[in-house]
C-alpha cells in the first residue's frame, strides 16, 4: 500500500518549496512508495506568480485546481478550507484516507489546508515548521503558529525552529531538522540561471546593481511608510543602480498613493512586473546587494553570499542574520545608507551557508515520510 499524500501549493513561494519535494518523492529510490495528489488552491493566479513556476521548475501540473483567488484573509482562508476539505473527503485516488497532508511555508493556503486536514483527522507534515518572528501583526506569523499547533510532523529548516518548537512543548520525536527546500530549488536551478544573464536586458551591468523587492503589508499598505521607503530607494539609487520587480500588491499601493511616478522618474531605478524564477535568480545571483522584505530572499542571499539589507525589524529566519549575509534594517534610512556604504566599500560581513542547506533537504523529507 503506497503512502498517500495530498500536497498543497497556493502562493508564489510554495511552488519553489514543493517542487523539490515532489521530485524527491517521485524519485526511483522511492519507486511506488508514494501516491501524490497535488492541489493548487489558486491563492496566486497571475501567470507570473503561479503558472510560470510549474513550467520553469519542471513541476507536474496540479491534479486539482481550486481557483480560490484573492480576498480578505478570512474570506480567502475560509474558501480554501472549504475547497480542500471537499477534496480530502473524496479520499486518495487509490482509495482510503490520506496518510499525510503536506504543507509548506506560512501563507494562507498553508494554514487553511492544515486546518482542513486536522479536522478530518489526517496527519499533517509541515515543511518549514518552527519559524517565529514573534510578531503577530504579520499574517504569516499567525499562519505559522496555528499550522504548527495542528501539525504532526514538524520539518524544520534551521536550528531556531527546533528551539521554538521545543519551547512550545512539542515532542522531540515529531521535530526533524531536515534543511531548506527553497535552497534545494536554488541549487537545482543555479546553473540554468547563470546561462541566461538578464542584467543587461534591464539596463544594468552584472555585479554593479542592487535588487529591490517589497511586498509586506507592514511596508506597503501604509502610504506614509511606503512613501518614506520610496524616498530612501531613490536616495540610494544615486550610489548604485536598482532593479525593482514590483509585486502586484505593491503596484496597487504605489498607484493608489500616486507615488509610482516618482520611481519611474528616477533615472537609476528600473521597474518591471514580477519575474519568473530563472530571470530573478539570474538577477539576484549577479547583483551586488539585495534590499528586500521577503523571507525567502534572506535565505537565498545567504546561500549566494550576497549582502541582504532586510527592510524588517524582525525575522523568523535568524540564522540569515547570525551567520548569513542579512542585516535587519527595519525602516531606518540611516542604517540602510550606512550598510549600503559598507557593501560598496567592501566592509560588509561575508556570511556563510547554514548546515543542511545543501540541495538535499527534500530527499531527507521523503525519507522521514517513509518512517
Ligand atoms: C502572499 C503571502 C505572503 C507571501 C506572498 C508572496 C499570505 C498571508 N501572504 O502575500 O506570505 O510572501 O504571497 O508573493 O498568504 N494579486 C494579484 N495576482 C495574484 C495574486 C494576488 O494581482 O496572482 C494581488 C491581489 O490584488 C491581492 C494582492 O495581490 O489582493 C495580495 O495577494 P495575497 O495572496 O492576498 O497576498 P500577497 O501579498 O501576495
TrEMBL record:
EC number: 5.1.3.23
GO MF annotation, one: isomerase activity
UniProt cross-references to Gene3D superfamilies, sorted A to Z: Glycogen Phosphorylase B (3.40.50.2000)
EC class (word): isomerase
Pfam family, one: Epimerase_2
Domain UDP-N-acetylglucosamine 2-epimerase: 31-369
Signal peptide stretch: none
Segments forming a coiled coil: none
Annotated keywords: Isomerase
Family listed: Belongs to the UDP-N-acetylglucosamine 2-epimerase family.
Entries under NCBIfam families matching the protein: wecB
Protein name as it appears in the record: UDP-2,3-diacetamido-2,3-dideoxy-D-glucuronate 2-epimerase
UniProt source species: Bythopirellula goksoeyrii
Amino acid at each position: 500500500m503506497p503512502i498517500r499524500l495530498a500536497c498543497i501549493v497556493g502562493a508564489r513561494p510554495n511552488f519553489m518549496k514543493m517542487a523539490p519535494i515532489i521530485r524527491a518523492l517521485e524519485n526511483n529510490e522511492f519507486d511506488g512508495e508514494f501516491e501524490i495528489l497535488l492541489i493548487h488552491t489558486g491563492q496566486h493566479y497571475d501567470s507570473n506568480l503561479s503558472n510560470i513556476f510549474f513550467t520553469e521548475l519542471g513541476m507536474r501540473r496540479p491534479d486539482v485546481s481550486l481557483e480560490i483567488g484573492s480576498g480578505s484573509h478570512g474570506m480567502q482562508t475560509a474558501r480554501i478550507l472549504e475547497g480542500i476539505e471537499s477534496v480530502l473527503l473524496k479520499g486518495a485516488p487509490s482509495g482510503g484516507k490520506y496518510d499525510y497532508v503536506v504543507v509548506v511555508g506560512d501563507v494562507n493556503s498553508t494554514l487553511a489546508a492544515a486546518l482542513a486536514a486536522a479536522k478530518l483527522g489526517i496527519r499533517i507534515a509541515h515543511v518549514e515548521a518552527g519559524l517565529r518572528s514573534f510578531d503577530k501583526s504579520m499574517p504569516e506569523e499567525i499562519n505559522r503558529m496555528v499550522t504548527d499547533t495542528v501539525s504532526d510532523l514538524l520539518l524544520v529548516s534551521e536550528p531556531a525552529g527546533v528551539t521554538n518548537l521545543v519551547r512550545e512543548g512539542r515532542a522531540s520525536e515529531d521535530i526533524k531538522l531536515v534543511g531548506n527546500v527553497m535552497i534545494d530549488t536554488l541549487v537545482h536551478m543555479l546553473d540554468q540561471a547563470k546561462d541566461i544573464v538578464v542584467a543587461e536586458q534591464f539596463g544594468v551591468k552584472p555585479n554593479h546593481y542592487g535588487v529591490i523587492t517589497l511586498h509586506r503589508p507592514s511596508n506597503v499598505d501604509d502610504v506614509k511608510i511606503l512613501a518614506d521607503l520610496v524616498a530612501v530607494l531613490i536616495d540610494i539609487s544615486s550610489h548604485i543602480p536598482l532593479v525593482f520587480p514590483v509585486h502586484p500588491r505593491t503596484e496597487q499601493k504605489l498607484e493608489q498613493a500616486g507615488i509610482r511616478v516618482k520611481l519611474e522618474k528616477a533615472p537609476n531605478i528600473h521597474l518591471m512586473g514580477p519575474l519568473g524564477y530563472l530571470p530573478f535568480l539570474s538577477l539576484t545571483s549577479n547583483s551586488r546587494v539585495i534590499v528586500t522584505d521577503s523571507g525567502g530572499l534572506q535565505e537565498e542571499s545567504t546561500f549566494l553570499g550576497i549582502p541582504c539589507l532586510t527592510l524588517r525589524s524582525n525575522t523568523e529566519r535568524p540564522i540569515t542574520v547570525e551567520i548569513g549575509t542579512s542585516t535587519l534594517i527595519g525602516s531606518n534610512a540611516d542604517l540602510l545608507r550606512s550598510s549600503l556604504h559598507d557593501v560598496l566599500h567592501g566592509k560588509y560581513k561575508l556570511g556563510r551557508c547554514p548546515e543542511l542547506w545543501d540541495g538535499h533537504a527534500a530527499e531527507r523529507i521523503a525519507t522521514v515520510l517513509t518512517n
